[in-house]
Amino acid sequence: MAMKLIAPMAFLAMQLIIMAAAEDQSAQIMLDSVVEKYLRSNRSLRKVEHSRHDAINIFNVEKYGAVGDGKHDCTEAFSTAWQAACKKPSAMLLVPGNKKFVVNNLFFNGPCQPHFTFKVDGIIAAYQNPASWKNNRIWLQFAKLTGFTLMGKGVIDGQGKQWWAGQCKWVNGREICNDRDRPTAIKFDFSTGLIIQGLRLMNSPEFHLVFGNCEGVKIIGISITAPRDSPNTDGIDIFASKNFHLQKNTIGTGDDCVAIGTGSSNIVIEDLICGPGHGISIGSLGRENSRAEVSYVHVNGAKFIDTQNGLRIKTWQGGSGMASHIIYENVEMINSENPILINQFYCTSASACQNQRSAVQIQDVTYKNIRGTSATAAAIQLKCSDSMPCKDIKLSDISLKLTSGKIASCLNDNANGYFSGHVIPACKNLSPSAKRKESKSHKHPKTVMVENMGAYDKGNRTRILLGSRPPNCTNKCHGCSPCKAKLVIVHRIMPQEYYPQRWMCSCHGKIYHP
């Protein structure tokens, strides 16, 4: 009540002082003082009202039954709190700090009201025993969200240690790991305008943070950690998505720090610290004779420490499609194996993969200002297909030596391109000075994806198809209309792995065989 009276009382006092000011100039000092108090009281009043508004839209999981003792199952409480917060604009779902909440598999489904924030200040932990999980697919799944933020100073712990046990074995001198029966920790599907910021993700049973069919995503200042020998624990995986900006993240896991899969474009990675792990990978592409497309990837500023790979592009024999318009610059290698690697003979089977003529085309790839030390004799490896040689590979200002201080080597099989500045180690079959051949497309790194049916370069509007010819979907959707062709990403065992792509017929979100 006192706060409500401040404004009118202060206003009356101000009027009286103004009248007196005509008679006494000294009253001006009092006038200034009262005006300042009036404005300050109004600001305080607005802050009170604003804080009350914010409090209404904070949904603390504890108020919905969650117990942060690290023992009680909080799955139902988290689900109920999500459903309530999802309905309110500018809502915040809060996981309070200094507490540990154990949850099982959860599906956080949208659409939700605008400006929804999920703030994690405490610890969200999975069950340690795999037998206690509801399923082995995805632990925390988010879908159909727009303008959503996942942030905080807390931890999301996948408790993957027991999942990793016995998953890898050595066959014919190669380590083969089972990647089919362990869940991803966090996955976003069919979402736009996302921000992931400040969190620490750790110990996922398999991939930590995966995006499929997402657009306009910022990932800022997060850390992802798992032991060096934890199998397939990728940090960030991006599939069939576009317009991503990863900035100032620190990732050290048992597999790729960042992996960019088929159907992805306009991916920017800045100031990444990676290690341990398998580096930044584009691919693998073309698995099971599928068509793949990745374009406009820009890595600017990265440090690789004791990684198994650095900057890697990996494709399977027998695939088709293209990986193009890729720039790596301002990168430091510290005792990294395979600092620069293009491998068009990628194979993870126990026996050697069969040689095939078809391959994913790799072209327009730039490596600029890459420096540091290599743990392998060949610091640069360009292992390209003889039937589909790599095109327009550009090396500029490269300085890589062995960790021992000795001279490193470059292996170039079927890569055509150019070099400029000092390139150490030197690579054969590359021509000097490529300035006249520099791709103009780097100046306009924008690709437009249209209804998942392909990509267009903005410069000439040329369609870059992601699959074969679209089918005729007339009368193929069981009476549903409109029935349109749509490129979907499927896998015969695990549909959500986003590897091969197929043209299907689609109507109102449902998929039909043509």
UniProtKB/TrEMBL annotation:
Compartments, record wording: Secreted, Cell wall
Major localization class: secreted
Active-site residues annotated for this sequence: 278
Cleaved signal peptide residues: 1-22
Catalytic activity: (1,4-alpha-D-galacturonosyl)n+m + H2O = (1,4-alpha-D-galacturonosyl)n + (1,4-alpha-D-galacturonosyl)m
EC number: 3.2.1.15
Molecular function in Gene Ontology: polygalacturonase activity
Gene3D superfamilies: Single-stranded right-handed beta-helix, Pectin lyase-like
Pfam family, one: EPF
Keyword tags: Cell wall, Cell wall biogenesis/degradation, Fruit ripening, Glycoprotein, Glycosidase, Hydrolase, Repeat, Secreted, Signal, Zymogen
One biological process term in Gene Ontology: carbohydrate metabolic process
InterPro entries: Glyco_hydro_28, PbH1, Pectin_lyas_fold, Pectin_lyase_fold/virulence
PANTHER family: PTHR31375
Similarity section: Belongs to the glycosyl hydrolase 28 family.
Official protein name in the record: Polygalacturonase
Lineage: Eukaryota, Viridiplantae, Streptophyta, Embryophyta, Tracheophyta
